[in-house]
Write the structure tokens for this entry.
Amino acid sequence: MDYLAELNERQREAVLYTEGPLMIIAGAGSGKTKVLTTRIAHLMKKGVDAFNILALTFTNKAAREMKERVEKILGGTEARNLYIGTFHSVFARLLRAEATRLGYPSNFTIYDTDDAKSLLKTIVREMNLDEKQYKPSFVLNRISSAKNGLISYAEYHEDFQLRQEDQRANRPLISKIYESYVKRCFKNGAMDFDDLLFNMHALLTRFPEALVKYQHKFKYILIDEYQDTNAAQYAIIKLLGAVHENICVVGDDAQSIYSFRGATIKNILQFEKDYDDVKVVKLEQNYRSTQSILKVANEVISNNKMQIPKELWTDNIHGEKIILMRTATDNDEGRFVAETISEQKLRNHFHENEFAILYRTNAQSRSMEENLRRKNIPYRIYGGVSFYQRKEIKDLVAYLRLIVNPQDEEALRRIINYPARGIGKTTLEKASVLAAQHNITLWQVLEKPASFGFRSATLQVIESFVYMIKSFQVMLEKHNAYDVAFRVGKETGLVKELFVDKSTEGITRYENIQELLNSIKEFTETPTEEGELLDKRLGSYLQQITLLTDADQDEHDQDVVRLMTIHAAKGLEFPCVFVVGMEETLFPNAMAINTREDLEEERRLFYVAITRAKSKLWLTFTSNRYRFGNLMQNDPSRFLKEIPKDHLDENYAGRAITEPVYRTERYPDSRQQNTPAAASVSGLGNGSAAAKRIPVHVPSENFKPDDPSTFEAGMEVEHQKFGFGKILRLEGNPNNRIATISFRQAGEKKIMLNYARLQITHNEEAG
DNA sequence: TTAGGCGCTGTTTTT
DNA sequence: CAGCGCCTAA
């Protein structure tokens, strides 16, 4: 029982309380994963069969880590029999086994967000609705939250409130689109992410035998990140656990950051009411961060009204103050981070992999990336476009999907004319109409094109396309997934097309395809538990990759700086953390400041960001940031004011204000060079919009920008783009001066001197 | 049928 | 700024 010795008293209590409902409120860094894994190991040591334990997480990575750690405690291979995985992947697996009950093929396709949007787009088009009014992302959001709330399209249709919301938003037909979307997915043999939850719930409620079967199978259920569960997940867990009631949920209300995905803290608050004797254990000792960091985190989160009272504490050293840095531009912010990393590596012997740069939105990675590259600091960006979402990967995967499931219309549409084979829009449209008329799938139309009267040239290309796909399907019987994928790449001409393209991106795309083929090979060579059939193995490969994100590709030993959104950083920890973009409208995000609930979620997000740091934490913000292609000025984030002053080192922020701003000569910034007009301040003048209409000024031969600090009112100046003009007046603080200049051609403009490249042509005072 | 150019529009977070 | 839809030319 030595595994128990490593636990503190509270942790041990949580591990040993094995029977009956248990809720663990686990603060950040309090050893939550350790408790969960030890608990599972303990159950197994007590004689519980691994097959009877279900553990659900939100990321594959968390699941894998859990599995590995249990394996380590137990030794042997028993841990492999545990059902540990994400909600989505575990349910996908169960649904695959039970698919026929619901009328789905067992090798159903899983649609990712792109597939779903693309299908919605075709549906909206087919319904002759305005595509701007019913934008796929908007419609998908509506449908998604309905499904996550377990509201079927029929119920949606009857729901007064939902209908009214749609009316008010001038999108009254959402419920109709919802209905066709569901029907079409079903026809395509496809489920989207939300369907994996919705249909799992449907399975358990509509088929009592299935419910009973799984209720008895999963005698012990553990749920990680319970604060992030939504109504569907909540209901499923409740159903599954109803017989044994051995449900252990772990969560931290302070880290609930997924309400936009339907998650609700209510599930945590509700838990105690759902069962008669709920044992609650609070883990409040933090093993991760310095006292300083923890104090700041506690202080910040205390501004939230909605929370379960608790106070995280730690035995760790006090540590250093948190450093606040202000820069002039987003590019400077990136440079500061890159320079600080270099400096810290030298001074404190940190490795690259001890740093993380966290931001609110993916778009912010760019300025970081550019500056890290400039300083030759190796890095890796998580999120954004994941490997499996890249075009070239999706193209090849679409072929594989179609081979496994010819009903999959999205896959078919994607590749029917890629590489180009003369089946264009007209043909596809005709086929779609026919499919709808005869109530068959698109594929079924293409299978018998002769009976639908296509022109003979078209007929021929369709037939050879179908023949090709069918020949791949035949291959499935005797060849493994890799052989099929390889042949597909070759015979469709897809690989060749990428090989011929020798541009940088073309080479990357080619390499990506090779990487995909390698991963398929690896998959085929790793035996699966139940020795499933070969075609099923390609099917299961496809199911699995749709649920992968690129956080799952992490090789943790890689010595690189990690860049990711705060959302993606949840559950991770780093010795040194930069939280960048601490500005109003960005963080808290402008989309999330209108209600207390939203704002509190932003604050929890900030709390998550702070608590990722073990020993050093930097917060940065910038006065000027490019957004939407023009320069925006933001105030410092309100959250900064919530940090206790004695834990915050503001020297750097101060220095940045009094020091001259980094000059463009020293660090050329491509954006500024290419578009000098972008330097005019949007919102102040009629800057960039007007700039487009002005005839381009050709700068003088010996044009050389002068030091901005030397400019004064009354000077005659030349601007690279706006031409000659005179400074009327200057305003703004000394380091961010804004000049109003009257240009001969371009008229009156407000120009930020730090960015504009201006040359003095005549000095009134001197001359 | 396809490629290429122009103009509009939008940026939150993700399984 | 970028990605996408729409239009035009070939």
Q: What stands out?
A: Residues 278 and 320 of chain A are 40 Å apart (CA to CA). Confidence is low (pLDDT under 50) at residues 530-535, 656-696 of chain A.
